[in-house]
Amino acid sequence: METGDDRSGLRCLVTGATGYIGGRLVPELLAAGHRVRCLARNPKKLRDHPWAGEVEIAQGDVTDPESLGAAMRDTDVAYYLVHALGSGSGFEATDRKAARVFGEQAWAAGVRRIVYLGGLTPADVPEQELSPHLRSRAEVGHILLASGVPTTVLRAAIIIGSGSASFEMLRYLTERLPVMVTPSWVSTRIQPVAVRDVLRYLVGSALMPTEVNRTFDVGGPDVMTYRDMMQEYAKVAGLPHRLIVPVPMLSPGLSSHWVGLITPVPASIARPLAESLRYEVVCHEHDIAQYVPDGPGQPFSFATALSLALQRVREAKVMTRWSSASTPGIPSDSLPTDPDWAGGSLYTDVREMDVDASPEALWRVVEGIGGDHGWYSFPLAWAVRGWLDRLVGGVGLRRGRRDAERLRVGDSLDFWRVEEIEPGRLLRLRAEMRLPGLAWLEMYAEDGPDGDGRSHYRQRAIFHPAGLLGHAYWWSVSPFHAVVFGGMARNIARAAARAADGRTT
User: Fold this and answer.
1) In this predicted model, what pLDDT tens digit does every residue of 152-164 receive, in sequence order?
2) Measured between alpha carbons, how far is 121 from 307 in angstroms, rounded to an integer?
3) Distance between CA 201 and CA 296 in Å, rounded?
4) pLDDT at 109
């Protein structure tokens, strides 16, 4: 690749490409004429993105100097879009280590610029008194700015876009609660920003002059309270005016559980977001416009950002969601498929049947499972399992789907995640609910045995128990498998047959 002073076609490294912002930034960088390399711990999660064939994918981790250094080679601009939000009590140390390794490897590789998306912090609160989440985001910015590599730190408050955690919180709270008792932070002033503006600033930051090494506050034109945001959402969405009653005694911990019960955002992520909302986060400058000029109507107003996000949701064109990245603390072990695997017990529940529909018709039902379509058996049991998971801090059943019809590796699907997909044949899901072990669910759409255009459905539930509790769990729920898994297989087969009949009559 060329290494001259030509600033077009820059070579960009994007970390966090499996996440909400990173997954949207990559196509924007490509559209701007840049060349992109993505760093991912599991490259397979990027395989099904529409832009996957246009980028280079490097396997590695931001805390591993060797793999990160290799990915940094021949890079002009390195985007730091990762953080350990909700990963446990040690997340500040993890963020600190990752930022130091990133800065050191960028300097060693001769990277021209680092671009980091952090959080907007209040000007009148010492950083040591901030919430752990905001304090860590600020510390990461300081470390990168001191790395010796020219760095752009963009500080945003609430990002509004289809699928963002902040948008989903706002959406579910407003739509589900016409009357609500709320934490006192609904009266705190905030300056939200549209995700489209954030992406524009991220792309534009790659071209900043070498002497620029500083933070920039980025926000939309509106400063409002969270109460104002809920009322504006109701207006844009065509809902009646909401009655909102703040209650001061709701602590951040209690309010995060309250958010977790009402919205799809689990408490592990809701808590740092709720803690951040205690502070007034308003931009104190708009210097970014000197380097990334705003066009007509930019930055977008809050109402416009909401309208654009809602349009994407209604058209089922959500590119990435807050749940695109793996949920912190959830095991990510792949299914042990080696026939000689000796890792201990594997319990399975297998269901098979012939289906009066083509393999294509059966596959459409399989790929459309979850979300609004449900799980084709005993809805109450699935709902109860989801609520129990939420009560113990899990993700629950309300994450739904990114797309109503299509899945890709890495997608969250209620309390599962797509681990593998072979279009037209196999869907493998890995459980992300709280369990004493690891669990998977496989669904196959295969040709029928007689070659008459019919299909064969095969379903396999797999559980790898962790200790005695795991074994006890499997045997305690196995009596219900005939109803849950057996009913699921039968109803999927019937749904495929009905869909086939509907197209041929």
Assistant:
1) 999 999 899 988 8
2) 27
3) 15
4) 96
